[in-house]
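Researcher: Please predict.
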Amino acid sequence: MAAVDDLDQVLEQWYPASDEFLKGNPEPVKKMWTHREDVTLANPYGPPVRGWDKVEEVIDHATSQAREGRLVSVEIVAKHVSPELAYVVQIEHPEAELGAREDITPFALRVTMIFRPEEEGAWKIVHRHADPISTPQPAESVIQE
């Protein structure tokens, strides 16, 4: 299943899974991840984590922060597929009630996802990095005081 068309099908599954995630249901997203110990996740809510137990915990926490949301659109910046690995770099444009806010708020995430074929050749997410930096930033923006 290591073909560009196959990765496109996986991404088409990601979009409705993201909608569920943004409504507070993490299960469809979790099914798309490898459950192996080399899995990693870096999301906007905290430091990167490694191992399925920690990744699942972070996914559950992130899901608890969103309600009534949906993935509005996705801009694919780059995509590459080889027999052993695939990646996509994209800007996701979701909207949701986040945290304590009670209004649906649009936002953007800069995302990199890495996939590998596992059981019966099915692509699984082995790494996801998402952050809110989707526009140019000044160099000073990386300074932590």
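Model: The chain has a mean pLDDT of 92.
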